[in-house]
Design goal:
Among the domains are: 66-192, Response regulator (Rossmann fold, 3-Layer(aba) Sandwich), CATH 3.40.50; 212-273, Winged helix-like DNA-binding domain superfamily/Winged helix DNA-binding domain (Arc Repressor Mutant, subunit A). The chain has helices spanning 2-37, 75-86, 100-110, 119-122, 128-136, 151-160, 172-183, 194-209, 218-228, 233-240, 244-258, 263-272; strands at residues 66-71, 91-97, 114-118, 141-146, 164-167, 188-189. By secondary structure, it is α/β, with parallel strands linked by helices. The N and C termini lie far apart (125 Å). It is elongated, with a radius of gyration of 34 Å. It has twelve helices and six strands. The protein has a six-stranded parallel β-sheet with strand order 2-1-3-4-5-6, with helices on both faces.
Length: 279
C-alpha cells in the first residue's frame, strides 16, 4: 500500500507539471498571435503567474508624445490636472511637484518638453524659477496657470520666459490647445487675459514716456526742493504752513513716485534730475 501511494503521488506530480507546461505553451502561442496582430508588439501581451515580469515598453513608444511636468502648490488641483492629462492621447506625464525646488530638480533630470506650473510658485523670489528653468532646461517650454489675472505678474512672467498663460477655471480643452501650441514654439495666452495685458503695457508705456519727477504735483515738487536743500520735516512744515504729519504724507507719496526709499535718496534724485523739472 505504501509503494502504491508513492507511485500515485509521483504520477499526480508529473500530470500537474504536464498541464502547467501545456498552459505555458498556450499562453506563449497566444502572446505571439496577439503581437502579430497589434501595432507595437506586446501592448496586448498577457501576463500570467508563470511570467510575473513587467511588460516591456518599446523604446520608441513615447516618441510622438508630449512629455509634461506638473507643479502646483495645491495637491488636489494637481491630482485633478494629472488625472485629466493622463487620459489624453499624445501626452505623457513624467513627474509632478508641489514646490519650486522639487520642480527644478525634476526638470533638470527629466528635461520635459512642457512644464505646467501655478503662478504662486512661479512668482516666488522674483520669478527666479523661470530663469533657472531657462538656464538648465533650454528646450523646455513653460505654461503658467492661475486662479486670477494680475496683469503685472503676467507681464513679468513673460519677460522671465513663460510661453503660455491661462486660468485654472479654463475649459480643459484649452489646456490641451495651450500644450500643443507652446510645444510648437508659439506663445499661447487665453483670450480673456489679453485685455488685461494690453492695459498694463499701455500703462507702462505712458509711465516710461514721462520722467518720474514730472509726475509730482506742484506741492510735492516744492517739498522735494526743500528736502534737497537739507531742511527737516519740521522746518518744511513751518515754511509751508503745514503740519509735520502732512509733510510726512507728502514725502511718502514722493518716495513712491520716484522709486526711492528715504529722504536722502529723494534729495539725491532731485539734484541729479534737476534738468527734468518742469514748472
Amino acid at each position: 500500500m505504501r509503494r502504491r501511494f508513492r507511485s500515485e503521488s509521483k504520477f499526480d506530480g508529473e500530470e500537474r507539471q504536464k498541464v502547467q507546461n501545456e498552459r505555458s505553451n498556450s499562453t506563449r502561442r497566444l502572446n505571439w498571435w496577439l503581437a502579430s496582430k497589434t501595432k507595437g508588439g506586446d501592448s496586448m501581451r498577457l501576463r500570467t503567474k508563470s511570467s510575473p515580469q513587467t511588460r516591456r515598453i518599446p523604446s520608441d513608444l513615447h516618441s510622438d508624445q508630449i512629455s509634461v511636468l506638473l507643479c502646483d502648490d495645491h495637491p488636489l488641483f494637481l491630482l485633478g490636472l494629472k488625472t485629466f492629462l493622463e487620459r489624453q492621447n499624445g501626452i505623457r506625464i513624467v513627474g509632478e511637484a508641489t514646490d519650486a525646488d522639487t520642480l527644478l530638480r525634476l526638470a533638470t533630470r527629466l528635461q520635459p518638453q512642457i512644464v505646467i506650473m501655478d503662478m504662486s510658485t512661479a512668482k516666488k523670489n522674483e520669478f527666479s524659477i523661470l530663469h533657472q528653468l531657462a538656464e538648465f532646461c533650454p528646450e523646455t517650454k513653460v505654461i503658467i496657470i492661475t486662479g486670477y489675472c494680475d496683469p503685472v505678474d503676467l507681464l513679468r512672467s513673460i519677460r522671465a520666459g513663460a510661453q503660455g498663460y491661462l486660468f485654472k477655471s479654463s475649459d480643459p480643452i484649452l489646456i490641451l490647445k495651450a500644450i500643443e501650441t507652446v510645444r510648437d514654439g508659439k506663445p499661447w495666452i487665453q483670450r480673456e487675459i489679453t485685455p488685461h495685458l494690453f492695459d498694463v503695457i499701455t500703462d507702462l508705456s505712458k509711465a516710461a514716456s514721462i520722467p518720474p519727477i514730472q509726475t509730482l504735483s506742484l506741492r510735492e515738487r516744492e517739498i522735494l526742493r526743500l528736502v534737497a536743500e537739507g531742511l527737516s520735516n519740521k522746518e518744511i512744515a513751518n515754511q509751508l504752513h503745514l503740519s509735520v504729519q502732512t509733510v510726512k504724507v507728502y514725502l511718502t507719496r514722493i518716495f513712491h513716485k520716484l522709486g526711492v526709499r528715504n529722504r536722502v535718496e529723494a534729495a539725491q534724485y532731485a539734484i541729479v534730475h534737476m534738468n527734468e523739472w518742469v514748472d
